[in-house]
Design a protein that fits this description.
Strand content: 5-15%
Number of helices: 10
Shape: rod-shaped
Number of strands: 6
Protein backbone atom coordinates (compact mmCIF):
# COMPACT_ATOMS: atom_id res chain seq x y z
CA UNK A 1 0.00 0.00 0.00
CA UNK A 2 1.46 3.33 -1.08
CA UNK A 3 0.66 5.18 2.14
CA UNK A 4 1.54 2.29 4.41
CA UNK A 5 5.07 3.35 5.45
CA UNK A 6 3.88 6.89 6.18
CA UNK A 7 1.15 5.60 8.51
CA UNK A 8 3.39 2.97 10.10
CA UNK A 9 6.02 5.61 10.89
CA UNK A 10 3.38 7.90 12.44
CA UNK A 11 2.11 4.99 14.54
CA UNK A 12 5.66 4.12 15.67
CA UNK A 13 5.58 0.72 14.03
CA UNK A 14 8.78 1.06 11.99
CA UNK A 15 12.13 -0.18 13.37
CA UNK A 16 14.04 2.40 15.40
CA UNK A 17 16.98 2.43 12.99
CA UNK A 18 14.58 3.37 10.20
CA UNK A 19 12.25 5.68 12.09
CA UNK A 20 14.82 7.55 14.21
CA UNK A 21 18.04 7.46 12.22
CA UNK A 22 16.75 7.54 8.66
CA UNK A 23 13.39 9.32 8.72
CA UNK A 24 14.13 11.82 11.51
CA UNK A 25 17.91 12.37 11.59
CA UNK A 26 18.82 11.91 7.92
CA UNK A 27 15.55 13.46 6.77
CA UNK A 28 16.09 16.57 8.90
CA UNK A 29 19.67 17.00 7.71
CA UNK A 30 18.51 16.76 4.09
CA UNK A 31 15.78 19.36 4.65
CA UNK A 32 18.18 21.71 6.48
CA UNK A 33 20.58 21.45 3.54
CA UNK A 34 17.76 22.28 1.11
CA UNK A 35 16.81 25.36 3.15
CA UNK A 36 20.38 26.62 2.96
CA UNK A 37 21.08 25.77 -0.68
CA UNK A 38 17.82 26.71 -2.45
CA UNK A 39 16.85 30.43 -2.47
CA UNK A 40 13.22 30.89 -1.42
CA UNK A 41 11.13 33.92 -2.47
CA UNK A 42 9.69 35.88 0.44
CA UNK A 43 6.12 35.16 -0.68
CA UNK A 44 6.73 31.39 -0.41
CA UNK A 45 8.70 31.46 2.85
CA UNK A 46 5.83 31.19 5.35
CA UNK A 47 3.95 28.42 3.47
CA UNK A 48 7.15 26.37 3.13
CA UNK A 49 7.99 26.81 6.81
CA UNK A 50 4.46 25.64 7.70
CA UNK A 51 4.93 22.58 5.46
CA UNK A 52 8.32 21.84 7.01
CA UNK A 53 6.80 22.14 10.51
CA UNK A 54 4.14 19.58 9.58
CA UNK A 55 6.85 17.24 8.27
CA UNK A 56 8.84 17.71 11.51
CA UNK A 57 5.79 16.80 13.61
CA UNK A 58 5.31 13.64 11.56
CA UNK A 59 9.01 12.76 11.79
CA UNK A 60 9.28 13.48 15.53
CA UNK A 61 6.04 11.79 16.67
CA UNK A 62 6.80 8.64 14.68
CA UNK A 63 10.38 8.45 16.01
CA UNK A 64 9.21 9.14 19.59
CA UNK A 65 6.61 6.35 19.40
CA UNK A 66 9.08 3.91 17.85
CA UNK A 67 11.60 4.67 20.60
CA UNK A 68 8.97 4.11 23.28
CA UNK A 69 7.90 0.83 21.74
CA UNK A 70 11.52 -0.38 21.42
CA UNK A 71 13.05 0.92 24.68
CA UNK A 72 10.05 1.66 26.88
CA UNK A 73 10.58 -1.33 29.14
CA UNK A 74 13.52 -2.97 30.83
CA UNK A 75 16.99 -1.57 31.52
CA UNK A 76 17.18 0.57 28.38
CA UNK A 77 15.27 3.50 29.86
CA UNK A 78 18.41 5.71 29.91
CA UNK A 79 18.88 5.07 26.20
CA UNK A 80 15.22 5.98 25.68
CA UNK A 81 15.60 9.30 27.53
CA UNK A 82 18.75 10.13 25.57
CA UNK A 83 17.09 9.43 22.23
CA UNK A 84 13.97 11.40 23.22
CA UNK A 85 16.19 14.33 24.22
CA UNK A 86 17.68 14.09 20.74
CA UNK A 87 14.19 14.36 19.23
CA UNK A 88 13.51 17.52 21.26
CA UNK A 89 16.90 18.99 20.30
CA UNK A 90 16.15 18.44 16.61
CA UNK A 91 12.81 20.19 17.01
CA UNK A 92 14.53 23.12 18.75
CA UNK A 93 17.22 23.37 16.05
CA UNK A 94 14.55 23.36 13.34
CA UNK A 95 12.74 26.20 15.11
CA UNK A 96 15.96 28.21 15.25
CA UNK A 97 16.49 27.61 11.51
CA UNK A 98 12.97 28.85 10.70
CA UNK A 99 13.42 31.99 12.77
CA UNK A 100 16.73 32.66 11.04
CA UNK A 101 15.09 32.19 7.64
CA UNK A 102 12.27 34.56 8.59
CA UNK A 103 14.72 37.19 9.79
CA UNK A 104 16.77 36.84 6.63
CA UNK A 105 13.67 36.99 4.47
CA UNK A 106 12.06 40.03 6.04
CA UNK A 107 15.24 41.99 6.67
CA UNK A 108 17.43 40.94 3.78
CA UNK A 109 19.22 43.73 1.95
CA UNK A 110 17.25 44.56 -1.20
CA UNK A 111 18.91 43.84 -4.50
CA UNK A 112 20.57 46.89 -6.03
CA UNK A 113 18.60 48.52 -8.82
CA UNK A 114 19.66 47.65 -12.35
CA UNK A 115 22.30 49.86 -13.92
CA UNK A 116 20.88 52.66 -16.08
CA UNK A 117 20.68 51.85 -19.77
CA UNK A 118 23.01 54.09 -21.82
CA UNK A 119 21.48 56.49 -24.30
CA UNK A 120 21.58 55.69 -27.99
CA UNK A 121 24.73 56.70 -29.85
CA UNK A 122 24.70 57.66 -33.52
CA UNK A 123 28.28 58.01 -34.72
CA UNK A 124 29.54 61.09 -32.88
CA UNK A 125 26.13 62.04 -31.45
CA UNK A 126 24.32 61.14 -28.24
CA UNK A 127 20.54 61.04 -28.72
CA UNK A 128 18.55 62.60 -25.86
CA UNK A 129 14.83 62.14 -26.25
CA UNK A 130 11.84 62.05 -23.94
CA UNK A 131 11.22 63.85 -20.65
CA UNK A 132 14.23 65.39 -18.95
CA UNK A 133 14.29 63.85 -15.49
CA UNK A 134 16.78 62.20 -13.15
CA UNK A 135 16.39 58.83 -14.85
CA UNK A 136 17.48 60.39 -18.14
CA UNK A 137 20.33 62.13 -16.32
CA UNK A 138 21.50 58.75 -14.99
CA UNK A 139 21.31 57.30 -18.50
CA UNK A 140 23.40 60.19 -19.82
CA UNK A 141 26.00 59.53 -17.12
CA UNK A 142 26.06 55.86 -18.15
CA UNK A 143 26.63 56.72 -21.82
CA UNK A 144 30.23 56.50 -23.09
CA UNK A 145 31.50 59.90 -24.22
CA UNK A 146 34.42 58.70 -26.30
CA UNK A 147 34.40 60.40 -29.72
CA UNK A 148 31.11 62.13 -28.87
CA UNK A 149 30.90 65.57 -30.44
CA UNK A 150 27.29 66.62 -29.93
CA UNK A 151 23.93 65.75 -28.41
CA UNK A 152 20.74 65.62 -30.46
CA UNK A 153 17.76 66.81 -28.42
CA UNK A 154 14.12 65.85 -28.86
CA UNK A 155 12.17 66.64 -25.70
CA UNK A 156 9.04 68.43 -24.56
CA UNK A 157 10.78 69.45 -21.33
CA UNK A 158 10.84 68.08 -17.81
CA UNK A 159 12.32 68.87 -14.42
CA UNK A 160 14.22 72.14 -14.26
CA UNK A 161 16.79 70.83 -11.79
CA UNK A 162 17.51 67.75 -13.90
CA UNK A 163 17.81 70.03 -16.95
CA UNK A 164 20.31 72.23 -15.13
CA UNK A 165 22.41 69.20 -14.21
CA UNK A 166 22.26 67.85 -17.75
CA UNK A 167 23.17 71.28 -19.21
CA UNK A 168 26.17 71.43 -16.88
CA UNK A 169 27.37 68.02 -18.08
CA UNK A 170 26.93 68.96 -21.74
CA UNK A 171 28.84 72.20 -21.21
CA UNK A 172 31.64 70.55 -19.23
CA UNK A 173 32.05 67.88 -21.92
CA UNK A 174 32.27 70.58 -24.62
CA UNK A 175 29.48 69.01 -26.68
CA UNK A 176 27.56 70.80 -29.41
CA UNK A 177 23.75 70.67 -29.33
CA UNK A 178 21.35 70.03 -32.18
CA UNK A 179 17.56 69.89 -32.51
CA UNK A 180 15.95 68.07 -35.44
CA UNK A 181 12.34 68.03 -34.23
CA UNK A 182 11.57 70.02 -31.08
CA UNK A 183 13.11 71.11 -27.80
CA UNK A 184 10.65 72.73 -25.40
CA UNK A 185 10.62 74.28 -21.94
CA UNK A 186 13.43 72.92 -19.71
CA UNK A 187 15.04 71.27 -22.75
CA UNK A 188 16.09 74.70 -24.00
CA UNK A 189 18.54 75.01 -21.09
CA UNK A 190 20.34 71.92 -22.36
CA UNK A 191 20.29 73.29 -25.89
CA UNK A 192 21.89 76.56 -24.79
CA UNK A 193 24.68 74.65 -23.04
CA UNK A 194 26.08 73.52 -26.38
CA UNK A 195 29.52 74.55 -27.57
CA UNK A 196 27.71 75.36 -30.81
CA UNK A 197 23.95 75.22 -31.39
CA UNK A 198 22.12 74.04 -34.49
CA UNK A 199 18.41 73.96 -35.32
CA UNK A 200 17.39 71.86 -38.32
CA UNK A 201 14.96 73.31 -40.90
CA UNK A 202 11.41 72.78 -39.62
CA UNK A 203 12.56 72.11 -36.04
CA UNK A 204 11.42 74.38 -33.25
CA UNK A 205 12.38 75.66 -29.82
CA UNK A 206 9.65 76.44 -27.28
CA UNK A 207 9.96 78.84 -24.32
CA UNK A 208 7.68 80.00 -21.50
CA UNK A 209 7.84 81.61 -18.07
CA UNK A 210 8.43 79.62 -14.91
CA UNK A 211 5.98 77.90 -12.65
CA UNK A 212 7.71 75.71 -10.08
CA UNK A 213 5.73 73.20 -8.05
CA UNK A 214 7.47 72.69 -4.72
CA UNK A 215 6.68 72.03 -1.08
CA UNK A 216 9.76 74.00 0.00
CA UNK A 217 8.37 77.23 1.51
CA UNK A 218 11.55 79.20 0.86
CA UNK A 219 11.64 78.45 -2.87
CA UNK A 220 11.02 81.59 -4.90
CA UNK A 221 9.90 81.10 -8.50
CA UNK A 222 11.12 84.53 -9.59
CA UNK A 223 14.56 83.88 -8.13
CA UNK A 224 14.81 80.52 -9.89
CA UNK A 225 13.79 82.07 -13.20
CA UNK A 226 16.25 84.93 -12.75
CA UNK A 227 19.03 82.47 -12.02
CA UNK A 228 18.46 80.62 -15.28
CA UNK A 229 18.02 83.82 -17.27
CA UNK A 230 21.36 85.09 -15.98
CA UNK A 231 22.90 81.79 -17.07
CA UNK A 232 21.28 82.11 -20.52
CA UNK A 233 22.45 85.73 -20.83
CA UNK A 234 26.02 84.59 -20.17
CA UNK A 235 25.66 82.35 -23.22
CA UNK A 236 24.66 85.21 -25.50
CA UNK A 237 20.88 85.42 -25.14
CA UNK A 238 19.68 89.04 -25.24
CA UNK A 239 17.64 90.73 -22.53
CA UNK A 240 14.83 91.41 -25.00
CA UNK A 241 14.55 87.69 -25.74
CA UNK A 242 14.65 86.82 -22.03
CA UNK A 243 11.91 89.36 -21.29
CA UNK A 244 9.71 87.76 -23.92
CA UNK A 245 10.26 84.36 -22.28
CA UNK A 246 9.33 85.75 -18.86
CA UNK A 247 6.17 87.34 -20.28
CA UNK A 248 4.97 84.05 -21.77
CA UNK A 249 2.48 82.28 -19.51
CA UNK A 250 3.59 78.88 -18.20
CA UNK A 251 0.34 77.51 -19.67
CA UNK A 252 1.37 78.45 -23.20
CA UNK A 253 4.48 78.15 -25.35
CA UNK A 254 6.34 80.70 -27.44
CA UNK A 255 7.85 79.32 -30.64
CA UNK A 256 10.14 82.03 -32.04
CA UNK A 257 11.09 81.75 -35.70
CA UNK A 258 14.70 81.46 -36.82
CA UNK A 259 15.08 85.21 -37.33
CA UNK A 260 13.98 85.84 -33.73
CA UNK A 261 16.30 83.12 -32.44
CA UNK A 262 19.27 84.63 -34.28
CA UNK A 263 18.38 88.17 -33.19
CA UNK A 264 17.92 86.90 -29.61
CA UNK A 265 21.36 85.27 -29.49
CA UNK A 266 20.05 81.71 -29.29
CA UNK A 267 21.38 80.81 -32.74
CA UNK A 268 24.36 82.21 -34.59
CA UNK A 269 22.63 82.06 -38.01
Amino acid sequence: MAGGPVRRHWQGRLPVWLSFWLVLIAGRVALWALWRLVPVPLAALLPLIALDAAILVWQSVGAWRALGREYGTGAQVLLLWTAEAGVLAIAALSTVLWLDLLAGGFYRTPAPPPAPEPLTRDAGAILIDGPIDYALLARFDATPRDRAERVILDSSGGLIYAARALASRVETAGLATEVRHECLSACTLVFLAGRSRDLAPGARLGFHGYRLASDVPTLNTADEERRDHDWMAARGVTQEFLSRIADTSPDTMWFPDRAALVAGGVLER
